[in-house]
Write a structure and sequence with these properties.
It contains 8 helices and 7 strands. The chain is an alpha/beta fold. It has a single domain, classed as NAD(P)-binding Rossmann-like Domain (Rossmann fold), CATH 3.40.50. It has a 7-stranded parallel β-sheet with strand order 3-2-1-4-5-6-7, with helices on both faces. It binds NADP nicotinamide-adenine-dinucleotide phosphate and 2-acetamido-2-deoxy-beta-D-glucopyranose.
Amino acid sequence: MSALSPIIILTGASRGLGLAVLSLLLSHHNARVTTLSRSSTTELQNTVKQYGEDRVLAIQGDVGDAEVNAGAVKQTVDKWGGIDGLVLNAGTMSIFRLDAVPLEYIPGYIETNLSSSIYLIQPALPYLRKSTLPSPLSSSTTSKSTGRIVLVSSGASSKGYVAWGLYSAVKAALNSVARTLAAEENLNGSGVGVWAIRPGLVDMQDLLRSSGAESMHPNEFARLKTAYDEGNLLRPEQPGSVLAGLVARGGPMDLSGEYLNWADERLLAYRT
Ligand SMILES: NC(=O)c1ccc[n+]([C@@H]2O[C@H](COP(=O)([O-])OP(=O)(O)OC[C@H]3O[C@@H](n4cnc5c(N)ncnc54)[C@H](OP(=O)(O)O)[C@@H]3O)[C@@H](O)[C@H]2O)c1
Ligand SMILES: *[C@@H]1O[C@H](CO)[C@@H](O)[C@H](O)[C@H]1NC(C)=O
């Protein structure tokens, strides 16, 4: 494997957006990828078979468990000798109005969905800070590392969609994690870049099927349903190509820490 084979850890690759990112990393970026999800779907298993165990290490585990994340970091380093990038894509929708959310549900949801990002980032950072892949599209100098972290955010992070309160709060917090982490890595001069990306409307069959959608705002629900019914959802490969491109090639360091739409024209060069 050439030196230009980025070593990436990707969470939530068993389906949806994460599965598309995995395929693109393997087919377009010559990457070696560790995946982390609770289940192992046929699609994920087929991808492992297609590219082989030299290219994909599929770990089954829950990102809400700090030890599972630390274990994924260790196994990746043991197998390939380092880590160049992370894609934190695992996410779970939650539909409850704030006046009705079961109080006992809140700590678990916030804890798992927010803390999991730091559970993976913290043990991976020492390796990301040593990553020295060439980064053709970024202006970082050669003395710094070129480690990259991509957080999958959501448009909901800056909106007040009815019944999406906990989900939005966690995504807003992830944008905040991106800002702070970028500032901390900038202060220590590591060269590690971090970007929070809004993937747009991809697929939400589960959401449309769930009875909880009744608690949404009728207009907001109708907007999603119309996009679905009329085939106006994005293909996962569209935002997926930007996520894969950012983590495999290195993102623009002048935008490190920012929350960006996948279709932002400053990210045009990453689309495939
Ligand atoms: N779809 C959209 O339109 C949209 C819009 C904005 C933002 N997003 C964000 O994009 C990301 C991917 O969304 P998606 O639509 O592709 O979701 P999805 O189809 O529900 O897939 C979610 C992935 O995350 C994994 N996952 C969930 N909880 C996990 C846990 N505790 N531990 C390990 N893995 C876990 C799932 O695998 P297992 O179930 O096997 O664990 C699955 O691979 C999420 O962060 C979502 O919030 C999506
Ligand atoms: C989000 O929280 C829910 C509820 O606790 C949990 O089932 C799910 O695994 C969490 N997802 C992630 C990505 O942390």
